[in-house]
Design a protein that fits this description.
- By secondary structure, the protein is mainly alpha-helical.
- The chain folds into 2 domains: 9-43 and 495-563 and 609-697, 2-Layer Sandwich (Transcription Regulator spoIIAA), CATH 3.30.750; 58-146 and 159-491, no CATH class.
- Helix content is 58%, strand content 6%.
- The chain has 29 helices and 11 strands.
- The chain has helices at residues 17-23, 34-42, 46-56, 58-63, 68-96, 102-107, 110-118, 130-143, 161-185, 197-220, 232-242, 249-271, 282-297, 299-303, 323-354, 361-377, 387-395, 402-418, 427-436, 439-442, 447-454, 456-472, 474-494, 539-550, 554-575, 581-589, 628-642, 655-663, 680-690, and strands at 7-10, 126-127, 384-385, 499-504, 510-512, 519-520, 525-529, 615-619, 647-651, 676-677, 702-705.
- The longest helix is centred in the middle third of the chain and has 32 residues, at 323-354.
- Residues 515-687 form the STAS domain.
């Protein structure tokens, strides 16, 4: 590839920050106070009221541009396709939440009704998500264990275990919705940025392991109680393998056949997705076949297969959340709220970029908060989105959330009229469908070698998040992942890769001296760069690296010079009482004493340390802030160099850092504002001119060839 080399020539004076400020007037802006921002926020007019309504009800925005002839058919087809998948996933994921399967259909219906009006994404499919279902199931299992008495909670009296579990799941979901709604109202949608893609990948992989292990009891047809808490995966595997000889062969064979069939057809869907207008609904097909076989051959009686059983027909009356469950589950509900929003927002962002529209993180929090509160009132459990279901909605022609509304209607039809047809469905089939849909999350293990080669700290975040969430549980694992992620940020800023720069010959560019051969390094000049903020945690590291770069410790040199100074002063005063302080200074900075005494005549135990450095340039172009501790440490370091006659220059310093230096009384008789230069090349030309190694003209001309 041929690189075009253009040339430019700049003819201007060399500027320091002081001379630049003298020549060019700066506009001083009046910054708004907190009170001004508050007044502006609370001020209301017709335009703001209109924007507020459009922001709160995004449906108005996309309904005004809805193209009925072009989009309606695609939305209908997409809604039917997505509805079939949502029904199957709702039934399957309800097992993860330790709830009767029919309540998974509630989650496919109620949350979508409110998201339709409040959500900003036009493509995500709202409903159950396996990770959230599992996290809710952990709370349900803890408060209403399969073996043993339920927790002592007012409101459990007179309820069956299944009803108690529904109360727990809906209360946790209600509290989750309150957290999401509160964060949306407080405009803290930015919180999702602290969950990096690496952390989410490791976390969801660990969740996939939990889900896989939890479904083994259905695949093998075993009676294994639900276990939650640290090491739950290990304890569950132990109980599965203890009972492995009691495996129900019919369940196992059905599960294997279902997983093979679904896996193969899904792969074919991916291969021929360009030719298929709608993906083959293999989950629905296998479910219908399994239902028919189970009913026709009476699997429950003949082979002891556990089936879905009685489906709730229609919808039950709303219920209020239980306050005691709020107290018991607040610690778990908050990470559920964060994970649910983070996953949904990530998926929504992918499709908003693809289809060129914007989504609002804070409005999404409000939408999911209201949706989960509304759904929990009607006994649904935590709702978010699933990538596979959203992919079906988008790829089958869905343009807006009308497709999502139609999919919710599909779930309603099954709940109200067709639920009895699913009663003979073996639970092992649902378990197999859950496991085969984990392929995408489990394949994330392939990221480990890539991360190790490209970014080792990110790889550490992935591995430790995955291990922590697998062994300690998803709630504690998320906390571990966040802690490790923040530690890597601290590590990167506390120990940045500092470098010594050199001029690239014939240009005004400066790069790491180790990386290039055609460089120019004037004698006695060192250019030091730190590519991070300087704050209390890395100021000592900065000073150590600076000493390493120049090759000596200025404070130690200063102390030795002062000691030698005192000894020489005494010696000279013995030889010549007329020696003055100025004469002493001349003697200290020169090799030979002009008063007649040669340094060779000094006693051998007197050494005057000399340094080869006369100018130190600090490149602050990547320094974004300085705190008070760093400011004090920087001032001490600069003063040490200045006191041993090394000129110090700071270049490319951010204007706000300069303002802070002024406000914090950083400058004094030793540290002057004239030390600061707008660019590195300005400082270098100033140094060369001062030490007569560059041009002797008072005005420097920069000739740059690129």
């Amino acid at each position: 590839m041929v690189t075009l080399r253009k040339q430019y020539v700049v003819d201007r004076s060399v500027y320091s920050e002081d001379s630049f400020a003298e020549k060019y007037d700066k506009v001083y802006r009046l910054r708004k106070t907190i009170l001004d921002h508050l007044k502006e926020y609370l001020t209301c007019d017709s335009k703001r009221a209109k924007n507020a309504v459009l922001s709160l009800l995004p449906i108005i925005g996309w309904m005004r541009i809805y193209r009925v002839k072009e989009w309606l058919l695609g939305d209908v087809v997409s809604g039917i396709s997505t509805g079939l998948v949502a029904i199957m996933q709702g039934l399957a994921f309800s097992l993860l939440a330790a709830l009767p399967p029919s309540y998974g259909l509630y989650t496919a219906f109620f949350p979508m009704l409110t998201y339709f009006f409040l959500g900003t994404s036009r493509h995500i499919s709202i409903g159950s998500f396996p990770v959230l279902s599992l996290m809710v199931g952990a709370v349900v299992t803890r408060l209403v264990p399969e073996n043993g008495p339920a927790a002592n909670i007012t409101g459990f009296e007179g309820l069956t275990p299944d009803q108690q579990r529904v109360v727990v799941a809906s209360s946790v979901t209600f509290l989750m919705g309150i957290f999401q709604l509160g964060m949306g109202v407080l405009q803290v949608g930015f919180i999702v940025v602290y969950l990096s893609d690496t952390l989410v990948s490791g976390f969801t992989t660990a969740a996939a392991i939990h889900i896989l292990v939890s479904q083994l009891k259905f695949v093998f047809g075993l009676q294994v109680p639900g276990i939650s808490g640290p090491l739950a995966v290990i304890y569950t595997l132990e109980k599965v393998f203890v009972q492995i000889t009691s495996t129900n062969i019919c369940d196992l064979v059905m599960s294997i056949l279902i997983m093979l069939a679904v896996y193969v057809v899904k792969e074919l869907n991916d291969i021929y997705k360009a030719k298929l207008s709608v993906p083959i609904p293999i989950e629905v097909i296998t479910t219908v076949i399994a239902c028919g076989a189970s009913y026709g051959f009476n699997f429950e009686k003949r082979f002891g297969v556990e089936i879905v059983g009685k489906m709730v027909s229609g919808y039950e009356s709303p219920i209020a959340p239980n306050m005691e469950i709020f107290q018991e589950s607040a610690v778990e509900a908050f990470p559920i709220a964060i994970v649910g929003f983070a996953v949904a927002f990530s998926v929504a962002k992918v499709y908003s970029i693809k289809h060129d529209y914007t989504i609002d993180g804070n409005q999404e929090l409000i939408a999911f908060g209201v949706s989960n509160i509304f759904g929990a009132s009607f006994r649904s459990f935590a709702a978010s989105t699933a990538l596979s279901r959203t992919a079906v909605q988008e790829s089958s022609g869905g343009k807006t959330q009308i497709a999502g509304l139609i999919s919710a209607m599909m779930a309603m039809i099954v709940t109200v009229a067709l639920g009895f047809l699913l009663e003979p469905l073996p639970r092992s089939v649902l378990g197999a469908l859950v496991i085969v849909n984990l392929k995408g999350m489990l394949m994330q293990f392939r990221e480990i070698p890539y991360l190790w080669r490209r970014d080792k700290p990110d790889c550490v975040v992935w591995v430790l998040t995955c291990l922590g969430a697998t062994l300690l549980g998803l709630d504690l694992g998320l906390a571990v992942g966040l802690g490790v992620e923040l530690l890597t940020v601290v590590f990167r800023t506390q120990f940045p890769r500092c470098s010594v720069l050199a001029n690239i010959t014939g240009t005004d560019l400066y790069r790491d001296r180790k990386d290039y051969l055609q460089i120019f390094e004037p004698n006695g000049v060192t250019i030091f760069r730190i590519p991070s903020p300087i704050f209390f945690a890395n100021i000592e590291f900065f000073k150590d690296k600076l000493i390493e770069a120049v090759g000596f410790n200025p404070l130690r040199v200063l102390r030795k010079r002062n000691k030698a100074h005192r000894k020489i002063k005494k010696l000279l005063q013995k030889k010549n009482d007329d020696v003055t302080e100025n004469g002493m200074k001349d003697l200290f900075t020169q090799t030979t004493d002009e008063s007649g005494m040669n340094m060779e005549e000094l006693p051998v135990d007197i050494r005057v340390p000399k340094v080869d450095l006369h100018s130190l340039i600090l490149d602050f172009s990547a320094v974004t802030f300085l705190d008070i501790s760093a400011l004090k440490g920087l001032k001490m370091a600069l003063r040490d160099f200045i006191r041993i006659d090394v000129d110090v220059y700071i270049v490319a310093c951010d204007v706000y850092i300069l303002e802070k230096l002024h406000s914090c009384m950083f400058f004094d008789d030793e540290i002057l504002t004239s030390m600061f230069f707008p660019t590195l090349h300005d400082a270098m030309l100033h140094v060369l001119e001062k030490h007569e190694e560059g041009t002797s003209k008072g005005r420097a001309v920069i000739h740059t060839q690129l």
